[in-house]
Amino acid sequence: MTKILMIDDDTEVLDINKKYFEEKGCYVEVADRAQKGLELAKVFKPDCILLDVMLPDMDGFSVCTKIREKSTAPVLFLSGKVSEDDKIEGFEAGADDYIEKPYSLREVYVRIQAHIRRSSNKNVQDQGTMFIDMNPFFINLELHKLFYNDQEIFISNKEYDLMLFLAQNAGKEISFEEIGKKLWGNYVESDRRNVMVNVSRLRKKIEKQTGVDSLIETIWSKGYKLVIPK
User: Fold this and answer.
1) What is the spatial distance between Cα 143 and Cα 130, in angstroms, rounded to a whole number?
2) Is residue 90 within 8 Å of 64, Cβ to Cβ?
3) pTM score, two decimals?
4) In the list 21, 37, 74, 226, which could disulfide-bond 115, CB 3.0-4.6 Å?
5) pLDDT one-digit tens code per residue, 197-218
6) Which of these CATH numbers, 3.30.460.10, 3.40.50.150, 3.30.565.10, 3.40.50.2300, describes 3-120?
7) Is the dihedral of CA 167, 64, 207, 181 positive or negative?
């Protein structure tokens, strides 16, 4: 049974969402305060966490950061704060997805299941080797980490998934839609910004830690391509 924790100060939203997900066979706990949500995250050990940004006792970004100190469960923001800066801050806090209010509960449920599947499969390797070599970059598939020579590049779980997908298709043009479906399980045109935000964040981390700014190439109006350094 899928265990979902929802943290939102709107009790009406919590009631509606809880009823919907329970009808889908999920076990749901809710919290209308950040502190209560953090306590539930420890004892309930959810498979997925749905989190609002605007909370009365602590903002959702700070909550997500604290959750990430103890849990690798997928965190999905459900928020009316939808500026690019908001989304970037959410992903940088460790979120796996950022869904704008108002949203479709059916879509949220599909995204939850997709994130849980990917999270559960992280330790299942179907590659013939435990490394992807992009000298001087390489991905350790066992540790789920990206390295530059011997230096680890510190990235989030979602950024790792993005980097792995690009690396598995190195030199190939990957569309926004292909990336969106790989990262979130489905794709609508409004998800293009989410893809762009995630790629931008990953690029910035790579450049900041290595000085390399040309690893991920933009294919204008289409998507991206990973270019292995020569």
Assistant:
1) 9
2) yes
3) 0.60
4) 74
5) 999 999 999 999 899 989 999 9
6) 3.40.50.2300
7) positive
